[in-house]
Design brief:
Blueprint lengths: L6 H20 L6 H8 L3 H7 L3 H24 L5 H16 L2 H9 L1 H4 L3 H18 L5 H25 L11 H16 L8
Helix pairs in contact: 1-2, 1-4, 4-5, 4-8, 5-8, 5-9, 5-10, 6-9, 8-9, 9-10
């Protein structure tokens, strides 16, 4: 059995990688399909064969980013809630986000353009599903807030890491993705650790 990707899949992956580079460099709004095609060294028609619009490309990027979240959600939905499950959900979410650091940075930097897009709304639904799993059944409002803050602590690490690289962070020691994720996971688990199974 061959483990190589088909040329079509490989081309789609290259398009997503190049688009992500350009969106990160210039922003989503300022990047055209022509620029993506030029960077790839293909015609706009060849690009159009795989993706009809920039929104289609963004949808592909976000689907790639969401794959680890989908895996955690599917796994978590099969488990009975417990404090151990809560912590494992946070750990798995952090690991999935760490493996998608460039995509998360892209999402942070282009939020205004993505907020109401189909892909952005689908990503929001995934985040809400993660929050529901972490908070557990019959959660109080404070526990729902803790679950939200725990997951957003993971996402916030990438925002602060970007500031650290540009010199805006008071503590330049957290300068790598691994260090930032370790710190974010510690904070996220501290926050989530205050969530308890409600008496039903």
């Amino acid at each position: 059995m061959s483990t190589t990707q088909s040329p079509r899949t490989d081309t789609r992956a290259r398009i997503l990688d190049v688009a992500l580079e350009l969106f990160s460099e210039q922003g989503y709004e300022k990047t055209s399909l022509r620029e993506i095609a030029d960077r790839l060294g293909v015609t706009k028609a060849a690009l159009y064969y795989h993706f009809k619009t920039k929104d289609d490309i963004v949808h592909g990027i976000i689907e790639s980013m969401a794959a680890p979240i989908d895996e955690v959600i599917a796994w978590g939905q099969e488990q009975p809630w417990s404090p151990e499950l809560r912590d494992e959900l946070v750990r798995r979410f952090a690991a999935g986000m760490a493996s998608r650091a460039p995509l998360l940075r892209f999402f942070h930097e282009n939020q205004p353009a993505l907020r109401e897009s189909k892909a952005g709304l689908e990503f929001k639904e995934r985040m809400l599903a993660m929050i529901r799993l972490v908070q557990g059944p019959e959660a109080t409002f404070p526990d729902r807030l803790r679950a939200t803050m725990a997951l957003f602590a993971i996402n916030s690490a990438f925002f602060l890491l970007k500031e650290s690289v540009s010199g805006g962070c008071a503590d330049p020691r957290a300068s790598t993705v691994a260090e930032a994720m370790e710190a974010a996971l510690t904070v996220a688990l501290e926050i989530a650790g205050r969530i308890e199974l409600s008496e039903v």
